[in-house]
């Protein structure tokens, strides 16, 4: 079955063989053949690019890059490796993916720049005071824990120890270390949930 499509201007469909001839003539610098190839493929190309890019404006921009490539690289087309439309769409797909990545990269840079140059409005002093209040409240409640729970929690979170290391340091089994740490955290969570309501 021939690879055919309808030209934008309503002209009869153009077969793969005819498109191949147009590409060969374009490679020889024939601007009329290039214009005919453009008119014969533009509609389908734009539809594909719009589907990938989700933007008719970007699709139009990328299509210009694609056809510039056609004009420059028409001589590289090899009919044994696929139809003219396959060749065209393959390059168009690569260019569209490159544009998607470029647009995403630009959006990421703008977001980072915006966050850096224009940070969200907030009361820095209040945040620092609040953080210190929380730290003091945690330290106070840790100090109130029962002896065995306190030493296990302090080793795990202030000493940055694993369960196994806490067990070795305290001379207890790993399950016992886990049990003490979990019990201590449950107690801390319960006490802090009420004491932090006192935050000014």
UniProtKB/TrEMBL annotation:
Pfam family, one: Sigma70_r4_2
GO terms of molecular function: DNA binding; sigma factor activity
Protein name: RNA polymerase subunit sigma
TM region positions: none
Domain of life: Bacteria
Signal peptide (residue range): none
Domain RNA polymerase sigma factor 70 region 4 type: 137-185
Family to which this protein belongs: Belongs to the sigma-70 factor family. ECF subfamily.
GO aspect biological process, one term: DNA-templated transcription initiation
Location of the RNA polymerase sigma-70 region domain: 38-104
Keywords: DNA-binding, Sigma factor, Transcription, Transcription regulation
């Amino acid at each position: 079955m021939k690879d055919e499509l309808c030209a934008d201007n309503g002209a009869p469909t153009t077969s793969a063989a005819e498109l191949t001839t147009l590409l060969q003539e374009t490679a020889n610098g024939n601007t009329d053949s290039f214009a005919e190839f453009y008119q014969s493929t533009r509609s389908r190309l734009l539809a594909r690019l719009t589907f990938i890019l989700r933007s008719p404006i970007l699709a139009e921009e990328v299509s210009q890059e694609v056809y510039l490539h056609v004009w420059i690289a028409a001589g590289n087309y090899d009919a044994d490796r696929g139809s003219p439309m396959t060749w065209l769409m393959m390059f168009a797909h690569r260019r569209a993916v490159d544009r998607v990545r470029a647009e995403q990269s630009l959006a990421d840079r703008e977001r980072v720049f915006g966050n850096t140059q224009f940070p969200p409005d907030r009361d820095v002093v209040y945040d620092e005071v609040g953080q210190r209040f929380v730290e003091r409240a945690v330290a106070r409640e840790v100090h109130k824990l029962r002896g065995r729970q306190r030493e296990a929690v302090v080793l795990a979170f202030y000493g940055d120890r694993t369960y196994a290391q806490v067990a070795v340091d305290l001379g207890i089994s790993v399950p016992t270390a886990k049990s003490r740490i979990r019990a201590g955290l449950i107690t801390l969570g319960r006490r802090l949930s009420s004491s932090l309501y006192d935050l000014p």
